Amino acid sequence: MAAAAGHPVLLYDIASEALTRAVEGIRQRLAARVARGKLTADQADALVSRLVPVTELAALADAWLVIEAASERPDVKKALFSQLAAICSPSTLLTSNTSSISITAIAADVKHPERVAGLHFFNPAPVMKLVEVVSGLATSPEVVEQLCRCVTAWGKQPVRCRSTPGFIVNRVARPFYAEAWRALEEQVAPPAVIDAALRDGGGFPMGPLALTDLIGQDVNFAVTCSVFNAFWQDRRFLPSLVQQEAGAGRASGQEERTGRLSLAP
Fold first, then answer.
1. N or C, which end of the chain is more exposed by having fewer CB within 10 Å?
2. Quick check: 48 and 30 in contact, CB under 8 A?
3. What is the distance between the alpha carbons of residues 246 and 216, in angstroms, rounded to a whole number?
4. Catalytic residue among 77, 120, 171, 174
5. Any residues with CB less than 8 A from the CB of 101 and at least 6 apart, and which?
6. Residue 62, SS3 per DSSP
7. Which of 162, 164, 134 is nearest to 226 (CA)?
8. pLDDT for 188-228, tens place per residue?
9. Can you tell me the distance from the alpha carbon of 110 to that of 147, in angstroms, rounded to the nearest whole number?
10. Domains along the chain?
11. Active site residue 7
């Protein structure tokens, strides 16, 4: 999205093979858009040329905006943000794509915490317009304004919210996912039938089980656990042991092509 808007983008990961897969995946999706006449080959090539893979965090020192998308674990995110704060300029906006972790907690040990915010995109990010712009206790209103202007320029629809468990969408969506998993556990119907009922009968663009598979069962389960514990284990947000099993071994559905549900009727 940033590259499509003309920005040079540094893609950081400690694993070079993950970066190679990421760029190749983007290249393939762009090729599909070219084949459908949605994009010219020159536009696709120009977009890819703006993606620069890096394996050293120090390469981000001159960035004006960082969007973190590490694993959904508070300790990992807090450690990464502390490193970024030491490397980047005090004016660099440090944002997290977290689905549920407290922005206030992430910013707690960061120098200049007023520039830390949530910038939560939804899967698939190139298609979904909504972006939650999340304020922690220390986030400055000016930073929120700047982020809203930025994502609007990228063709997205920002919605402002405070840092509470699950923010807006994941707080409301957790029971939706959870009840689908409970129906599966109780063998009410096969996965494809549950999804079809919600998709075709309920008007949802995608069934809840297929959507968790797209997100990645491990990621979705981690978010559910985060929201469940943040709400003092309110049973509305009770995690599913079946989903935990589906997500075992870092099975990120569409990303890794492993651990996916069988959605055949």
1. C
2. yes
3. 9
4. 120
5. 72, 74, 77, 226
6. coil
7. 164
8. 999 999 999 999 998 898 999 999 999 889 999 999 999 99
9. 19
10. 1-55 (no CATH), 56-164 (3.40.50.720), 169-256 (1.10.1040.50)
11. no
